[in-house]
Amino acid sequence: MVASIWNIKSELNYYSTMIQCREIPPKADLLARTWLQTCREIEEPEHVFIMDVREDGSLGCEDLWVFSKHYAMRVKNFIENEEVEIFGITKPISYMKLKASDYDFKDFDARSKLSLTVQINPGCEVTIKASQGNCPILETIIKYLCTTNNY
């Protein structure tokens, strides 16, 4: 599977490359790293994810997600917003729904999309979406949430 190579360092490098290709705004990198530092005060992050599919299905920067051992932290519309939401992660995960479109978990193209709906704890269900080259990073997040040995 493509997802096995991703970690927080390679994820940040990928997003820096997307900025150079003008797929996400340049200030996204600075904002992501600033929020990452803020989240470190709560718990050391293990994964970072920039949701690149908006609620209406169009592509663009949407939410920043930071995952640590016990928490998922989200900054909705992080290019404009200055508020972080912190969700405790309850494992094992009790509900997860995946929807893949033109993505076979091996390779991606310009049409590829992956959507995850997950009950992160008994009181909270969230949806995280990815497109194109972001799909393998979301796949890594899915695997991370499914593993119980990181507790």
Our count of domains comes out at 1
Structural class: alpha+beta
Our count of helices gives: 3
User: What best-fitting shape do the alpha-carbon axes yield?
Assistant: globular
Q: State the CATH architecture.
A: Roll
Strand order of the largest sheet: 1-2-3-4
CATH overall fold name? PH-domain like
What is the average of the pLDDT values? Answer: 84
Reading the helices and strands in chain order gives HHEEEEEEEH
* Number of strand segments: 7
Low-confidence parts: none
Beta-strand content: 25-35%
Based on the model shown, name its key terms.
single chain; about 150 residues; alpha+beta; PH-domain like; 3-stranded antiparallel β-sheet
Structural description of this entry:
- The protein is an alpha+beta fold and 151 residues long.
- The chain has helices at 8-20, 27-40, 135-146, and strands at 45-50, 64-68, 71-75, 85-88, 96-101, 113-121, 124-131.
- The chain has one domain: PH-domain like, CATH 2.30.29.
- Helix content is 26%, strand content 28%.
- The strands form 2 sheets. The protein has a 4-stranded antiparallel sheet, with helices on both faces. The chain has a 3-stranded antiparallel sheet with strand order 5-6-7, with helices on one face.
- The two termini are 23 Å apart.
Short overview:
This protein is α+β, with helices and mostly antiparallel strands.
